């Protein structure tokens, strides 16, 4: 693996262990969603059923430990431990970009979590620019090597523009997604990396045959900010300017669900209430990355489990107080949309059509 890629992976983990990479002024707007309190829920907490089906597997709760890392010894510890957590809790688990594995096959072990997580819903990960230049058979072999159930193809033009030495040519992304949807043996998830999915992009994804999207909206970790902190000069200034760029998570969930896509809501998801609000907007599951990683950094596996226990407890409480026994009922729960989110939700994909 090139020294540049290895150092980037190390830098990413170091930066994401802090809050220095959060969005500065933009929130994910989930706070603009209010669920209606029901004083007569006629439910016991033990009645609640949090199970969902995602990518052909049943999850015990609508939670994904979202894509973070891979390619280094430290990344292997994160992947192996958190995949085991996800497996034991009945969640999904996303690997970080497998670009390091593509460049240096000897790093494959850092992504190979099946021994620790035999039953987990496991999502591989490759960038759309890298996928464009790879044969389908090469990507399939990379997924087979880790036993992936699905492939996240990540879309990250804003991050790449700021990243020193990053990609600058984003042509043929739509055609690439279409090819892999048609030719891979596993489902494809179109995954943003912190800048969200617009109404227009959601429509294009649906038209390519993509059925799953991880919106990774603005308001959580700014990967533009991560790269800005690694950059110098003009790229640093560009990153500072674009730090808060993107479609907020709540709006991105709405746009993608409106197109009939199955949605994983990531981007600043921190609590069970956040997950509940995302589901009420149309998501199937919520994904958490940096906050699980920070809990793991601070308290090991036990710290990650304590954090996720709290998330589940919060989700159950909100479901009961909303009178919802199942996730499907939560998706249809009465809600109030306020503030800036109401403006975003008023935008239609054909606004600029002429």
Secondary structure layout:
Elements: H1 3-16, E1 33-35, E2 52-54, E3 57-59, E4 63-65, H2 73-89, E5 92-94, H3 99-103, E6 121-127, H4 128-132, H5 136-144, E7 150-155, H6 157-162, H7 173-183, E8 188-192, H8 199-208, E9 212-214, H9 223-230, H10 233-242, H11 249-258, E10 262-265, H12 272-280, E11 285-288, H13 290-321, H14 327-331, E12 335-337, H15 339-345
Parallel strand pairs: 4-5, 4-11, 5-6, 6-7, 7-8, 8-9, 9-10, 10-11
Antiparallel strand pairs: 1-12, 2-3
Helix pairs in contact: 2-13, 9-10, 12-13
Features:
354 residues, alpha/beta, TIM Barrel, two-stranded antiparallel ribbon
Tell me what the structure shows.
This protein is an alpha/beta fold. The chain has a single domain (3-345), classed as Aldolase class I (TIM Barrel), CATH 3.20.20. The chain has 15 helices and 12 strands. An 8-stranded parallel barrel has the order 4-5-6-7-8-9-10-11, surrounded by 5 helices. Helix 2 (73-89) packs parallel to helix 13 (290-321), helix 9 packs antiparallel against helix 10 and helix 12 (272-280) crosses helix 13. The longest helix has 32 residues, at 290-321. The model is unreliable at 349-354 (pLDDT under 50).
């Amino acid at each position: 693996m090139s020294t540049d890629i290895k150092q980037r992976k190390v830098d990413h983990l170091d930066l994401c262990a802090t809050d220095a990479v959060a969005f500065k002024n933009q929130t994910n707007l989930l706070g603009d969603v209010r669920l209606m309190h029901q004083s007569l829920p006629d439910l016991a907490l033990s009645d609640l059923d949090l199970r969902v089906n995602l990518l052909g597997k049943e999850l015990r709760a609508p939670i994904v430990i979202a894509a973070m890392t891979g390619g280094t010894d430290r990344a292997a510890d994160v992947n192996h431990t958190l995949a085991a957590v996800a497996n034991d809790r009945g969640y999904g688990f996303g690997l970080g970009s497998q670009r390091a594995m593509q460049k240096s096959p000897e790093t494959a072990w850092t992504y190979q979590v099946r021994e620790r997580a035999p039953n987990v819903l496991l999502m591989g990960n490759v960038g759309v620019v890298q996928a464009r230049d790879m044969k389908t058979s090469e990507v399939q072999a990379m997924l087979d090597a880790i036993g992936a159930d699905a492939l996240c193809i990540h879309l990250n033009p804003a991050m790449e523009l700021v990243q020193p030495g990053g990609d600058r040519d984003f042509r043929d992304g739509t055609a690439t997604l279409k090819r892999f949807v048609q030719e891979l043996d596993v489902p494809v998830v179109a995954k943003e990396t912190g800048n969200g999915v617009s109404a227009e992009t959601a429509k294009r994804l649906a038209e390519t045959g993509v059925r799953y999207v991880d919106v990774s909206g603005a308001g959580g970790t700014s990967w533009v900010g991560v790269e800005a902190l690694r950059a110098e000069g003009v790229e640093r200034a560009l990153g500072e300017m674009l730090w808060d760029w993107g479609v907020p998570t709540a709006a991105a969930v709405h746009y993608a669900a409106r197109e009939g896509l199955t949605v994983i809501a990531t981007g600043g998801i921190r609590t069970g209430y956040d997950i509940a609000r995302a589901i009420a907007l149309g998501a199937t599951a919520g994904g958490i990355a940096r906050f699980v990683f920070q809990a793991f950094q601070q308290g090991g596996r036990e710290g990650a489990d304590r954090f996720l226990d709290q998330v589940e407890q919060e989700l159950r409480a909100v479901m009961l107080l909303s009178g919802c026994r199942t996730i499907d009922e939560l998706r249809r729960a009465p809600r109030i949309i306020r503030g800036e989110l109401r403006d975003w939700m008023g935008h239609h994909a054909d606004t600029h059509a002429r």
